[in-house]
Amino acid sequence: MTDQRRPKNDILEWPLGSLDFSQGCIIMGILNVTPDSFSDGGTYMDTDSAIERALQMVHDGARIIDIGPESTRPGSKPVSAEQQIARAIPVIEKITQRTDTVVSIDTQDSRVAEAAIKAGASIINDVSAFGDPKMPEVAARYNAVSILMHMKGTPSTMQKEPSYDDVVSEVLEYLTSRIEYAKGFGLPAEYLMIDPGIGFGKTYHHNLELLKHLDRFCRTDHRVLVGTSRKKFIGRITGREIPSERLFGTAATVAASVLAGASIVRVHDVAEMAEVVQVCNAINNA
């Protein structure tokens, strides 16, 4: 990562799509088509309800719809590529027929990513930061924008006593190395984004440290995505045990992320977080 920063408040265009960052941060709406996601598992398993939810999120202000065919909650087990494809592809095909909103595929599997891109997705959101050695090849073949996230371990092991000497420096160093790895496959730097992975192999205190020092990630020359929506550490602070009741706690983390310079926030409650983002963008642009 260099000292010559690329402009982030601009329009990002790539062969499969475009995103307008001219006003600042934008919203990625979460659409889990799984039976076991931590907050909304089973809610959008049938295609019609998933499409309805996607269109509602677009109406509410989402600029990206993130399709998740595999739960990555703590303790979750892997889902086969075939099962992920069966869950995700019909939804992606119908969303892209109904709207020109950008669709991303939340997967660690290159086979799923390729099938999703062929169906109309244009972003790969990979919690393993190209852990599948064929994933960067797929991304490069289709010139897909890719989001590389930090995760310590795997979803099934990541919350078993994670430890760091300096969580901010170590996560940033890891993401820097994965960006360089991805660029080695010919992916343009502007197509690569980073995500510190809040809640993925981090303790309560690690999550707060990463949010407190998020500006260090945002000062790099890569756009930053932050996903804090409804997560357990918010419930620990507020006493809200039910994920769907963590709306105001989520809003606080979204505001902190936008003010620190995040380019994308990944959320469940799009309509409410759209107002938070609008206000924070106005502050940043004042």
Comma- or semicolon-separated keywords:
286 residues; eight-stranded parallel beta sheet; DHP_synth-like; single chain; 10 helices; two-stranded antiparallel ribbon; alpha/beta; 10 strands
Task: Describe the protein.
This protein is α/β, with parallel strands linked by helices and 286 residues long. It has one domain: Dihydropteroate synthase-like (TIM Barrel), CATH 3.20.20. The protein contains 10 helices and 10 strands. It has helices spanning 47-60, 81-98, 110-119, 135-142, 167-183, 204-212, 214-218, 232-238, 247-260, 270-285, and strands at 11-14, 17-20, 26-32, 64-68, 102-106, 123-126, 145-149, 192-195, 225-226, 264-267. The strands form 2 sheets. Strands 8-7-6-5-4-3-10-9 form an 8-stranded parallel sheet. A two-stranded antiparallel ribbon has the order 1-2. β7 (145-149), α5 and β8 form a beta-alpha-beta unit. The radius of gyration is 17 Å and the shape is globular. It starts with 10 loop residues before the first strand and ends with a helix. 48% of the residues are buried. The model has no long low-confidence stretch (mean pLDDT 92). Residues 25-278 form the Pterin-binding domain. InterPro entries: DHP_synth-like, DHP_synth_dom, Dihydropteroate_synth-like_sf, Pterin-binding_dom. Catalyzes the condensation of para-aminobenzoate (pABA) with 6-hydroxymethyl-7,8-dihydropterin diphosphate (DHPt-PP) to form 7,8-dihydropteroate (H2Pte), the immediate precursor of folate derivatives. One of its GO terms (cellular component) is cytosol. Belongs to the DHPS family.
